[in-house]
Amino acid sequence: MSETNKDVQIVSNFLEASMAPDPVRAATFMSEDVKITFTGGRVMPDPLAITAFNGSRYAWVKKALGNFDWMDRGDHTVVYSNGTLYGEWPDGRSFSGNRYLDRFEVRNGKITRMDVWNDSAEWLLVPEIAKG
């Protein structure tokens, strides 16, 4: 397996652990000084904070993984994961088809940066647009 494929697998393993949710296992795929930024510019110190944030925003949430795209940047690999979110809002309404895009930087076998974007904020503000 090439180095870049290993980096994509690291991201895939991280996402699998995150969705369990198992933030302790998810943290094993990240460097100690990882930089995590969620939608709205929210900085997260670690996967425990991600789980806590998701717990406040959703009753539960999972990812329907789409494609993984990657590029070699010399000293690191950039991996993009896209797909959709599905789950339940805190008020009990279910949702699906909520687009997401995650960008990761992987260096020396660890995720060193994660940036997250999705439609959740827009869907919460204007629920009608979620109906397509």
TrEMBL record:
- Which InterPro entries does this chain map to? NTF2-like_dom_sf
Q: What is this protein called?
A: SnoaL-like domain-containing protein
Organism of origin is Pseudomonas versuta
